[in-house]
Amino acid sequence: MKIKGLQKLTLIDYPGKLACTIFLFGCNFRCGFCHNPELVLNKLGGNISEQEVLDFLEKRKKYLEGICITGGEPLLTLEKNFLEKIKSLGYKIKLDTNGSFPEKLEEFVSEGLIDFVSMDIKSSKENYLKVSNSKIEIEKIEKSIKLISGLKDYEFRTTILEEIHTTEEMEKIGKWLNELIGKIPKKYFLQGFKNNGKFIDQKYQNKIDVTEVFLERLKQKIECYFEEVGIRV
What we know:
Layout: E1 3-10, E2 19-24, H1 37-41, H2 50-60, E3 66-70, H3 80-88, E4 92-97, H4 102-110, E5 116-120, H5 128-132, H6 138-148, E6 154-160, H7 167-181, E7 187-192, H8 212-222, E8 228-232
């Protein structure tokens, strides 16, 4: 497990909790518009040790409530004993994932090591391989979706690009999740693409940020498929 960094305080990464965020290296997806390509491609140095993180958490446990573990794709390298050590300090743990490691996710959830899961839904089922630029097993994605939808605290989310996530595409996502789960999922968030100047695919270098107006238009189209649809800009 390789830890890239630690954001010592976040008010947004773990809904409703004062938290910190741990960033892990590596991802099995190659989404061209990824906003953390250095974590995905594992090119940067500056790693911090597991013990450094645990020492920080020990000192801050009177003030922080939760930990968000993200990447990259954290389940690629996340270790069970690291989660156990965090839980022993009394923290709630939120995991960000692309859903491609359902067995590992199920193990951690069943043993009470994960309290909240946020899963990225890249696109409709038909377009998953194209958008993720990866040879993924869609059955694993679907297994994770079904597992997560049975949790008390979870959300699905999609990073929106206008040329990919049309109203038709978003309705396909809504119908897919409803049919797969057999009920209306709780929370779904639309996250607008932001041009931070660093991408896996350089064609996104000159893309403009997605507007809140566009996100609102999509929200209106898919609200019938979810209990709650939110926007993050």
